[in-house]
Each structure stands twice: as structure tokens, then as C-alpha cells.
Amino acid sequence: MADPEDYPEHRLGLQRDNGFLEVRFERHDRTRPVHVEHRVPCRMDFPRQPPGEPLLGVFVTTSGGVAGGDVLRVSVEACHGATATVTSQAAEKVYPSLGAPSRLSVELRVEGGAALEWLPQETILFDNARLERRVDLDVAPGGSLLALDLVVFGRLARGERFASGALHDVWRVRRGGRLTWADALSLSGDIAAQLASPAGFGGATAAGLVLLVADDAAAWVDEARARLSRGSCRAGVTLVGGALVARALGAEPAHVRRDLTDLVSWLRAARSDLPARMPRFWSI
Q1: Which family does the record assign (predicted)?
Q2: Helix, strand, or coil here: 139?
């Protein structure tokens, strides 16, 4: 790993963010955020929810995006009996880097008897962005985590593709502290060729992942496969280490977003009698 002082961002004296957010949800007559600590540019708001919806936390990056050299850390814990949804105010933009990677770490912990939904909006990788992300999920037996992740390869509305830069994305799932699923993706060098290759992403401009880590995950695999098979994306669903893992690739980010948010909406309604819809910030 390169010395941070060797990056142009440091030599030029550019200001970079080093922010964090820590949130813990507990149930006291209802779910409440009993611990919230943050440092700019990270923040969490708690807007009022429509009837029938869990407590909602909205993650905000006040800087408007992530630049090379920024370090952001997010930690969310749902304690026994708590039920909460976490989303983001808008898509996360990863801007071009002069050389230093943007580093993002996410830690989600769910105790037995708790339910957490992690449903941030998409991450958009600008051309020449460099992102290192690590997502660690620890769900105790009896706990439930429904997570969604969407990555868009380029600022497509401007005709820009993610053709150079780097992406290193690591996911780890633990059940009660024991590692049950690990995944890593690394893109660098001629990224345009890797995304275009039939043996790679097959021309996709967006990729998505839905994870259900829960005791009943196996019960939903067949129907999840059937639902995604009716969508417009290349998609698959499997059961790994007791977790339902659904992936989708699409030539249009809107199609990946639609297919996977439809799946999430169905899962939350079928499993938990919640409304079959995404948090309202997804439609703003």
C-alpha cells in the first residue's frame, strides 16, 4: 500500500475529509436511536415516517460526494427488539482522484430479535475514481438484515463511463461472529475492457446486490429467482452460508435499480408485513 504522503493530494496540501458516523438503535417502548455520534461530513437525520413503517435513519454526506483521499466510516447497530431502516439522502458520488483512493468502511451489527434494513441509494463512480470499500455485516441468530447495494459505472447522464481508476470492494458476512460469506471485487487497469468483456460484466453499466441474512433466508430463494427472472436484467439468486444473495447486471442503471428495489419491496412486505415500497427518499 502506498504511503499517503506520496499521493498528489497530500503534496498539494488539498483538504480531505476524515468523517464517521456511529448509530445504535434500542427498543424502549419503541425503537429509538440511543447513541448517535458523527464527524463531518457524515450525519444522520430521523424524519417522520408514514404509519406502518419502522424508524428511519437517513445518512447524509454534507460534502456532496467523496474525493480521493477521503476516509469515511459508518457503524450501525440494532440491539435486541429494535426495528429500523437506514437509507441515504441521495446517490453517493465518488469523484475523480489525483491518485489517492477514497476509503469507505461500513459495519452493520444486528442482535438476536432485531431487524435492520440497509437501503442506501446507488454509488456512482466517476471516470478516474478510486474507491476502496469494505462492508462488514454481523447478524446474530434470530436477527434479520436486509441490505441493498447498487453501483453505477460512470456519470452516464453526461456520456461519461468509468473507464479508468480503481474499485476494490470487499464484503464479509458473519453469523454470530462466525464468517459465513466473503466476496471481493477488484477493477483496475483497462476497466472499460473488463466491463465490456463477455467474461466480465458483459457491457453492463450498473451492478446490484441484495442480501438477506436471516434464519428464514432459504424460504425466499425460489420466489426471489422467479421474480428476478421476469425482470430486464441478467440476474441470479443463491443461498450461501444461510444468506440469500441476489445479483443483477444491466445495460441501464434504471433497470437494475427497478428490478432490485422491486425485490426488496416484495421481501420486506412478505417477511415483515411492511409496506411493499422503498423509503420515500428513493423517489425524491
Answers
A1: Belongs to the UreD family.
A2: strand
Distance CA 93, CA 155 (A): 9
AA letter at 160: E
CA atoms within 13 Å, Cβ hemisphere of 164:
5
- H-helix or E-strand spanning residue 274: none
Name the amino acid, one letter, at 74.
V
Structure-block grid coordinates of residue 237: 439468486
DSSP state of 218: G
Instruction: Check: CB of residue 185 under 8 Å from CB of residue 149.
Output: no
pLDDT at 120 over 60: yes
242: left (phi over 0), alpha (psi -120 to 50) or beta: left
Looking at residue 53, what DSSP letter applies? P
- Percent of the chain topping pLDDT 90: 85
pLDDT digits (tens, 9 = 90+) for 5-47: 566 655 544 556 689 999 999 999 999 999 999 999 999 999 9
Whole-angstrom Cα Rg for the chain: 18
Q: Report the distance separating Cα 21 and Cα 278, nearest Å.
A: 23
CB 67 within 8 A of CB 16: yes
Of 43, 25, 44, nearest to 35 (Cα)? 25
Look at phi and psi of residue 113 and say left if phi exceeds 0, alpha if psi is from -120 to 50, else beta: left
AA letter at 212? L
pLDDT, mean over the chain: 93
